Amino acid sequence: MSEKKTPRPEASGIIGGATTSVALFQDRSVDLSVDLAGVVLKNPVVVASGTFGFGREYGQFFDLSELGGICCKGLTLHPREGNPPPRIAETPLGMLNSVGLQNPGVDAFIRDELPFLRQHDVTVIANISGNTPEEYGVMCEKLSEAGVDMIEVNISCPNVKAGGLAYGTRPDLAAEVTQKAKKRATVPVMVKLSPNVTDITEIARAAADGGADALSLINTLRGMRIDVNSRRPILKMNTGGLSGPAVLPVAVRMVWEVANAVKLPIIGMGGVSTGEDAAQFLLAGASAVAVGTALFADPFAPLKVRDELAAIAARQGLSAVRELTGGVQPW
Ligand SMILES: Cc1cc2nc3c(=O)[nH]c(=O)nc-3n(C[C@H](O)[C@H](O)[C@H](O)COP(=O)(O)O)c2cc1C
Questions:
Q1: pTM for this predicted structure
Q2: 157 catalytic per annotation
Q3: Does position 74 have pLDDT exceeding 90, yes or no?
Q4: Reported confidence tier of residue 26, pLDDT bands at 50, 70, 90
Q5: Residues with CB under 6 A from ligand 1
Q6: Where are the beta strands (DSSP E) in the chain?
Q7: For residue range 282-297, what is the model confidence (pLDDT) as tens digits?
Q8: All domains of the chain, ordered by start, with CATH?
Q9: Angle of helix 200-209 relative to helix 248-261, nearest 10 degrees?
């Protein structure tokens, strides 16, 4: 198949003094749209929760409508300050964070942030964390009524004491939270799984049994760094969540396992920074991917991933990028 490339304007920006630029080419011969539990994304690249805020800052770099979707910063029923600093540390090929769900609360999001997001032609996915299963239900009702397109139920935050990871490591609790969310949501519910478990398919099945419409994975892996001179952990919370390219093979393996265990659409994430990374997730069984940590080095990363993915699909003679999903041929 010949590659019909439509040149688009050069986008560029300055981050931390370094000039970043990306030439935006999109291969128009490939259909990039994907269906995620009835929600159609215009392309399979979304931005990962907690790495894109509510889009305002990145909106200064590019038109948010270019994205397949925006997973918003994790919301809680009431505002949260997050954890004390330091709460970010670099690691080989990644980073640790212990931000701890700093957010303005669900009502402020609906009042102050959703109208801004709605000015763009982009799928809006709200990400929520509750202290109790009931809180997930309350937030689902508020957000559905407010008109988000989809809700991502976070049962996998390693950086908060209440809820968070506890729900993501016990199948019974994962099922209960999913049921409570589904009961009051009128938009599709996607459950975000934790990699901090022995068998991720157990939790995936529990979420599916609880009525989940889709799954996303992975959240961050619990990690730690220590300053050898002070003998103190670098993060004030002692431990944090590892993300970035270091986790990519773990995440691809988990997506593959989950895709073989349940029949739900999946957003795969963990270390995606190139089109080839994204293609691996799709081949493993994901319908879409999320880009997170890569944004901190290059705000245009999701657009680069999208365009490289389109080029890979075109090179392989595919007419739609969704044809990659589940295409891995295991030995
Ligand atoms: C600074 C930071 C904050 C995050 N906050 C959230 C959050 O609020 N809710 C959530 O579900 N995941 C959160 N995550 C996890 C990401 O959405 C994603 O699952 C993870 O970082 C793996 O993708 P990546 O390697 O591309 O970053 C956060 C990650 C980072 C790095």
A1: 0.93
A2: yes
A3: yes
A4: low
A5: 48-51, 73-74, 97, 99, 101, 127, 154, 157, 192, 219-220, 243-244, 247, 269-272, 291-294
A6: 5-15, 18-27, 34-36, 39-41, 45-47, 69-71, 88-91, 94-97, 123-128, 150-154, 189-192, 214-217, 221-223, 226-227, 232-233, 240-243, 266-269, 288-291
A7: 999 999 999 999 999 9
A8: 5-324 (3.20.20.70)
A9: 50
